[in-house]
Design brief:
The structure is a homodimer.
Chain A (H helix, E strand, L loop, with lengths): L6 E3 L3 E4 L14 E6 L16 E7 L38 E12 L4 E5 L8 E7 L14 H7 L5
Antiparallel strand pairs in A: 2-3, 2-7, 3-6, 4-5, 4-7, 5-6
Chain lengths: 159, 159
């Protein structure tokens, strides 16, 4: 058997502005720029203005990789909520430290190779690995179900 | 200035079953297993069964990194559609080669450290970088808009 492969990822862009420090709630009040890395051409953003939302894939780079917990714990350490594994929560302390968030696309500024977004739950300086247009067809298909703790946790997350 | 950082990603799981080769449409007919890598404990999946859908972050590892195009091209090379940049499309030939898809969670098999999913548009053997529970609050907030070509492209993608 060959060794497990690894994948080297390069930032394609950077979060500039918005919150300087992570805080859990009211993220939809925040606007920030996502500025292309110098290795990326402005043409990569061509046509994105026809979409109202983008999906940002980023790295929780403030999390120490040595401190990522994988086994079951209570979300936000809230004693009222059950212990769940890292893949049953969306917290930042996770293997590979990847975040994925859909946020509003407010403006495209091709001259300065950047887009302005609303409701991106990533702090100033965060490295971005991908920008995807939000297509409604990629929403969950069929009836959606989630546990009560998840609905409670998300109650004030955006607004 | 310091050099641009890179991030080394390790597969947390692997797609097993489903399609052997990529094909563009009717992905919701497919079921596959997402099997944890041997480095991951079954406890990482604890509590995921309370969710109806998961979000899978994976690598399009069949794409040659040397052949990733970033500037504007027509989606699926369809002459009827406009030229758009790589960050205005969701195609697989993109920087960092990351795919993100919400799919139905059909079964959790903790004994064999795996989950069965429906509608994952990734082929057999694909490395998985993250598994996140789908929370409806992470859907796009506010009115959603997309160009006509995107709706046309997605018309037969799932069914």
């Amino acid at each position: 058997m060959s060794a497990t492969p690894t994948y080297e990822m390069h930032p394609v862009a950077w979060v500039r502005g918005g919150r300087a420090e992570p805080r859990d709630d009211a993220w939809d009040a925040e606007q920030a720029w996502v500025v292309l890395d110098e290795t990326m051409d402005a043409e990569t953003l061509r046509g994105l203005d026809a979409f109202s939302h983008v999906e940002i894939v980023f790295v929780f780079d403030r999390v120490d990789p040595e401190r990522v917990e994988t086994v079951a714990r209570r979300p936000r350490n809230n004693p009222a909520w059950p212990r769940v594994g890292v893949f049953a929560q969306r917290g930042k302390s996770r293997p590979n430290r990847i975040g994925v968030t859909r946020c509003g696309l407010e403006e495209i500024d091709l001259t300065n190779r950047r887009i302005r977004v609303r409701g991106l739950d990533a702090v100033d300086g965060t490295p971005v690995l991908d920008i995807k247009p939000h297509m409604p067809a990629f929403d969950a298909r069929g009836e959606v179900r989630q546990p009560d703790w998840a609905a409670e946790l998300m109650a004030g997350y955006w607004t």
